[in-house]
From TrEMBL:
PROSITE patterns: G_TR_1, G_TR_2. It comes from Macaca fascicularis (Crab-eating macaque). Pfam families: EFG_C (PF00679), GTP_EFTU (PF00009), GTP_EFTU_D2 (PF03144), LepA_C (PF06421). Its main location: mitochondrion. Keywords: GTP-binding, Hydrolase, Membrane, Mitochondrion, Mitochondrion inner membrane, Nucleotide-binding, Protein biosynthesis. This is GTP binding elongation factor GUF1. Promotes mitochondrial protein synthesis. May act as a fidelity factor of the translation reaction, by catalyzing a one-codon backward translocation of tRNAs on improperly translocated ribosomes. Binds to mitochondrial ribosomes in a GTP-dependent manner.
Length: 694
């Protein structure tokens, strides 16, 4: 039995240290006790992590400790961020232990520690103030997105705005901090819209600026359109050298249609080839925005960026919301955290939400208890409440994609509201099959795909299987880059290894073999769902379309699952014709048939082909014809046997051979005239089946 040791004197008497400001690669937790740390160890750390994290704890050996991450181990980074994300700092504060720690953006897992951001440490008072969101009345809130063509400088401008508002420190390492994903860092492009709440003091007023940095590439335009639903304005960034490009126009119209205020920002004016005046004129001409409304900046150097903040406050209206109404929150994005479940990004259109509230999803009608609310600053910063007009995150124990629908409306239990319109679903353009490299990994890959599609709702997923690759999925993407990024994220964020088939685009195909019912001139009467797995379909069929092989075809198409029954529905008017089948000009009475006018040609052709296959070759040629009245609509020929009349001629005179062949041809002519073609019995059955299946 292990005995608990009493805390040593040195620990109790440890002086309170001043929080180191801006300490790099470290987390300052103030007077966090060993008890809290060890409980955290118990809750979330594996033995390896405990050992590694234990090293700096032991060496510090004080109540007041600074956790240094001892190695670039990716999993350690993940754990540290999980702890911070779980509100460790806030927890310590609520117990009166500590100053809290608000950090820079999460390090990308597996990245070298040098790329990690600087931590920013707040005083207790600052931290307490951060938790109270009631200090921002609606008129002091501005919600806006930064939109632009690819590489025109959105993320760089976002960095400057974060710095100007004191959200992050101005250091070499804080570059494109809102591009948090490893794939974004590696490729140098934004693929995921990121929200950041900035606190800004202007002329004695405290403003809350909710900024959403969006991707520029067309494959991720769904991110832009969703982000705009949480905004009242956009910063339309245009490169001073390249001018207006395709995505500039597309994004402008997205904002215009959503009736948002558009602030044109001409960026990169520091470039040698920059021509801001030309771009100003373009903007005026194409978007009808007066040139004097354009703000010329260099996001890279920080030139004139302050005036962008001014314009946001002056030109973008505050949200039109009502705090006194019952809660109405739009879920506009979400991510999955393995410890906390779904983290939903929400924009509050009405009311207030607090930790502990019972909320209902309009989509699933399920009730949840709110475990945490907060803002992204730019990382998760828990707050006491979120108020209408604000944008933040909410954790309520939702566990999967079905529960956490993007576009869903959340409201308070027993206070139902009219759901918000939500979003149009994305239309995939490129499709590819995805299979686990090893079939035993199927379930893990399934769960990884589900979690990732939660964060990227524009991907469509359908189950599929292949003889060679086994069970898998057919995924739909908005483009090739989107497909590559999704695959890369699966590998990097979920450690999944997959086989991705060659991408294809959608085709519209008419599957003649499976249109079993339509092809038989049926008219649907009704459809009744008997239970979850069975449906009853009622059709009006012409009887001659089902008598012969309909049931066989139905069984084979449905792998034996479908059953069939019919009853007489009386006579109906139809355009029918009588079709004769002729053998060497003589009608075969047994094969005379009545068919629908539109199908006469195809049935006639098929019958002739079947007869050709079924009739034995004879000494004379047989002409098989299908006719409607005197009009021949199809013809096949069965060639005659040719007896080798020259067999006995060894060498000899050519005139003798010609004489024999001529005599044979004359004999055949006579045969043709008197020829009475014998039709075997099974040919009739084959022919009847042909007629029916056409
Ligand atoms: N010279 C100069 N370069 C800039 C400026 N702003 C951004 N850049 C550079 O332009 C490149 C693209 O910048 P980003 O901020 O990533 O552009 P983005 O629009 O966010 O890119 P996507 O999100 O991928 O569309 C980077 O190399 C930046 O350093 C600027 O004001 N001047």
């Amino acid at each position: 039995m292990s005995r608990r040791r009493a805390p040593c004197r040195r620990q109790q008497a440890a002086p309170r240290r001043a929080a180191p400001s801006g300490c790099f690669r470290s987390w300052y937790l103030g007077r966090a006790t060993r008890g809290l740390l060890s409980s955290l160890h118990r809750v979330c750390l594996s033995p390896v992590h405990r050992t590694l994290l234990g090293v700096p704890l032991k060496t510090n050996g004080l109540c007041c400790c600074c956790l240094l991450v001892p190695s670039p181990d990716a999993s350690i980074a993940r754990v540290m961020w999980t702890l911070v994300g779980r509100g460790w700092g806030a927890h310590a504060l609520s117990r009166g232990w500590a100053t809290g720690a608000a950090l820079g953006p999460a390090p990308t897992f597996g990245a070298a520690p040098e790329s990690w951001p600087t931590c920013r440490v707040y005083s207790s008072a600052e931290f307490k103030e951060k938790l109270d969101m009631s200090r921002f009345p609606v008129e002091n809130i501005r919600n806006f997105s930064i939109v632009a063509h690819v590489d025109h400088g959105k993320s760089t401008l976002a960095d400057r705005l974060l710095e100007l508002t004191g959200t992050i420190d101005k250091t070499e390492n804080n570059k494109q901090v809102l591009d948090k994903l490893q794939v974004e860092r590696e490729r140098g492009i934004t693929v995921k819209a990121q929200t950041a709440s900035l606190f800004y003091n202007c002329e004695g007023k405290q403003y809350l600026l909710n900024l959403i940095d969006t991707p520029g590439h067309v494959d991720f335009s769904y991110e832009v359109s969703r982000s705009l639903s949480a905004c009242q304005g956009v910063l339309l960034v245009v490169d001073a050298n390249e001018g207006i490009q395709a995505q500039t126009v597309a994004n402008f119209f997205l904002a215009f249609e959503a009736q948002l205020s558009v602030i044109p920002v001409i960026n990169k004016i520091d470039l040698k080839n920059a021509d801001p005046e030309r771009v100003e004129n373009q903007i005026e001409k194409v978007f009808d925005i007066p040139s004097d409304e354009c703000i010329k900046i260099s996001a890279k150097l920080g030139t004139n960026v302050e005036s962008v903040l001014q314009a946001v406050i002056e030109r973008i209206p505050p949200p039109k919301v009502h705090r006194k109404n019952p809660l109405r929150a739009l879920v506009f994005d979400s991510t999955f955290d393995q410890y906390r479940g779904v983290i939903a990004n929400v924009a509050l259109f009405d009311g207030v939400v607090s930790k502990g509230d019972k909320i209902v999803s309009a989509h699933t009608q399920k009730t949840y208890e709110v475990n945490e609310v907060g803002v992204l600053n730019p990382n998760e910063q828990p707050t006491h409440k979120l108020y209408a007009g604000q944008v933040g995150y909410l954790i309520a124990g939702m566990k999967n994609v079905i529960e956490a629908q993007i576009g869903d409306t959340l409201y308070l239990h027993k206070q139902p509201v009219e759901p918000l319109p939500g979003f149009k679903s994305a239309k995939p353009m490129v499709f590819a099959g995805m299979y686990p490299v090893d079939q035993s990994e199927y379930n893990n890959l399934k769960s990884a795909i589900e979690k990732l599609t939660l964060n990227d709702s524009s991907v469509t997923v359908h189950r599929d299987s292949s003889l060679a690759l086994g069970a898998g999925w057919r995924l739909g993407f908005l483009g090739l880059l989107h497909m590559e990024v999704f695959n890369q994220r699966l590998e990097q964020e979920y450690n999944a290894s997959v086989i991705l088939t060659t991408p294809t685009v959608p085709y519209k195909a008419v599957l003649s073999s499976s249109k079993l019912i339509k092809a038989r001139r049926a008219v649907q009467k009704n459809m009744i769902f008997i239970d979850q797995n069975r449906v009853m379909l009622k059709y009006l069929f012409p009887l001659n379309e089902i008598v012969v092989d309909f049931y066989d075809s139905l069984k084979s198409l449905s792998s034996g699952y479908a059953s069939f029954d019919y009853e007489d529905a009386g006579y109906q008017t139809a355009e029918l014709v009588k079709m004769d089948i002729l053998l060497n000009g003589n009608t075969v009475e047994e094969l005379v048939t009545v068919v629908h006018k539109d199908k006469a040609h195809s049935i006639g052709k098929a019958i002739c082909e079947r007869l050709k296959d079924s009739l034995p070759r004879q000494l004379f040629e047989i002409a098989i014809q299908a006719a409607i009245g005197s009009k021949i609509i199809a013809r096949e020929t069965v060639k005659a046997y040719r007896k080798n009349v020259l067999a006995k001629c060894y060498g000899g005179d050519i005139t003798r051979k010609m004489k024999l062949l001529k005599r044979q041809a004359e004999g055949k002519k006579k045969l043709r005239k008197i020829g009475n073609v014998e039709v075997p019995k099974d040919a009739f059955i084959k022919v009847l089946k042909t007629r029916s299946s056409k």
